[in-house]
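#struct-help
A.M.: can someone run this one for me? Single chain, 154 residues.
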Amino acid sequence: EDVVLMRHYLRKHNIEVKFVLNEIVRPVLSQSKYKNLLPLFVARNILLVSPETKAKEMLRVLKGVPQINLLGACIDDTILSRQGVENFAKLPSLEASQGQTVGALALLPSQTSSLLQRGSAHLTALLDQHIRRLQAGETGSPAEPAPAQSLGAH
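D.P.: on it. Structure tokens below:
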């Protein structure tokens, strides 16, 4: 009964459940790029197959079926242990990662521009202050503090 419910819930996520016989699967695996999976095919096995990577959904459904133990998975041509599948399921989606990367890359030019402009704006302010002091000295106004004293606060 649990297996029937599991199959139903997995199908909702476009994950197909395949019951396989080791006598058929082992010779096929031994001739394929998945031959490293052979040690896992020693007892009764169920394959979960999906065109999309649905690790989170698969783990959530399998958690409710104690008689099925996840041994591993092959995701994007990479063989993962159970722990590897659990770690993979915790990763953000590809779209979210791409969005974060694009956001970070878009921020860099504006930060660079800001940093470059900050130096010139500071220099302009210092030069304006220096000009005002020079002009104040020509008109006989009381002299302002020396530039070295005012620069010490920066």
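A.M.: thanks! The first helix runs from residue 2 to 12.
D.P.: also worth noting: The CA atoms of residues 95 and 101 lie 10 Å apart.
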